[in-house]
Amino acid sequence: MVRIKLKELAKKLSKELAVAQKRYKESKSDADRVSQEAVSSWSSAGDREYSQGQAEILKENLESIKRIQKAIESAFEKESVDKVEAPSYVEINLNGSAMNFYLVNDPIHLENVNFLSGESEIGKVIIGKVVDDVFEIKRENTVVRGKIIFIG
């Protein structure tokens, strides 16, 4: 099966990348302006640190989007996937409830998109599983059971 869900994510990421680049450029410009103003004023030092911090956060987000895009582009080399690996779109049944998400190595916040890290508790357990495999996550007083429904 063609990896339709990953293609949908790639389109969303392209749009988000454009927005993130614009935000970073504006934030960096603001940080540079505040830095110049802070040279002549000790009271502006906090503003400088804050604006530089914001620019760094936006830069990290931009780089994360680029890393996910690169991983997805590499994943397109495979028309289909037999087992759970990052990046993949995954549907599972977890204790009777359906869940779906994109398993990635470097999750970000993207509106209306569920990301799950391969390093998360569930991510570690499901990597390498195939459709219809069952899994368990043992916690202190409970056991969470799940089943792989779809991988794309």
Describe the fold and architecture.
With 152 residues, this protein is of the alpha+beta class. It folds into two domains: 72 residues; 64 residues, Chitinase A, domain 3 (Roll), CATH 3.10.50. It is built from three helices and five strands; from the N terminus they run H-H-E-E-E-H-E-E. Strands 3-2-1-5-4 form a five-stranded mixed sheet. Strand 4 and strand 5 form a beta hairpin. Helix 1 packs antiparallel against helix 2. The longest helix has 35 residues. The radius of gyration is 20 Å and the shape is elongated. The model has no long low-confidence stretch (mean pLDDT 87).
Give keywords.
alpha+beta; 152 residues; five-stranded mixed beta sheet
Strands side by side in the biggest sheet: 3-2-1-5-4
Radius of gyration: 20 Å
Percent of residues in helical segments? Answer: 40-55%
Question: Which structural class best describes the helix and strand composition?
Answer: alpha+beta
Average pLDDT reading: 87
Please provide the ordered H/E string of secondary-structure elements.
HHEEEHEE
**Ends apart, CA distance between termini:** 8 Å
Q: How many H/I helices? A: 3
Number of domains: 2
Secondary structure layout:
Layout (H helix, E strand, L loop, with lengths): L3 H35 L6 H31 L12 E7 L2 E8 L10 E3 L3 H6 L7 E5 L4 E9 L1
Parallel strand pairs: 2-3
Antiparallel strand pairs: 1-2, 1-5, 4-5
